[in-house]
Amino acid sequence: MDDNNIQTDINELEQTLPKTLSKQLFQTMDSDNEMMPFESIGQMQYQQADAMTICPNCGATMSQGSDFCEACKHYVKYDTCSFCGAQLQGDEAYCPECGNPRGGVVCPRCNTMNDFAFCKQCGMPLTDEAKRLLHQVRQTPEYMEMQKIADKLCELDKAVPMTSEIEVMHEKANQALRDRVLKLLAEDRGETNPVIPEIKSKRITQEDYKENKKTLTDQLMEALDALKTQPMEKPVEARNYAMAMKPAGLRLAWKCNYKNAIHSSPCGCAKPHLGGKWIILGQNTKTTKD
Known about the structure:
The protein has helices spanning about 5-15, 20-25, 40-50, 130-140, 140-160, 165-190, 205-225, 235-245; strands at about 50-55, 60-65, 70, 75, 105, 115, 250-255, 260-265, 275-280. By secondary structure, the chain is mainly alpha-helical.
């Protein structure tokens, strides 16, 4: 095939391919006018895109800088302790810094095997450092205020709202009967014009329930956003901090900045050091299977 035929083929293909792609695919070499091999093309695209690497455990592709494979759910940064972030020198069975086993620990509460300092299932701190961090975080005014809102929301969820007018009337009748009985008992004791202490009913209407639920949910979302995990240098420290910041008693999920994915916790995120936050898990919220 002569040079004229090659050039004709190139011109025809350039009409059907994007201009920039065709230039990459059909750059000719100055020496002998041969086409650039596809390996070089892939290398160019590789350099332009987010650098990828291979999981040493399962072989899945993963982004460079990840310390956790989201495909096989294993910690893969073997030169760094998954519990405290200390550098490891070789094949130590235990971290020389924190003393935790490299193979992971079993949570004494829920019997889940964990690679990290907090249980990915129940959130229990599993190391001495994690316990100290949790205690330290829970002493901060910001966390205490957030937990107070979370406790109110938990208490509200236990309430059974009145859904009909009959229930409302029945509750009012019970309140009136209570007041009358207490007044008669006071009069029997010789009291005149007794003052009956008002006891607020724990039953609320469906409308009040929805209004209170929305108010507390909005307050909690604002608090969670204010205490979101900022980008950090070390994934292990970011993961531990995020787990310590989770308010107790609520069904929450972790939204990472890396992929904007929703995980059950930062223990399932490949790059927690890019930051993220806890969010309230709604009925239509889907989490990745961590």
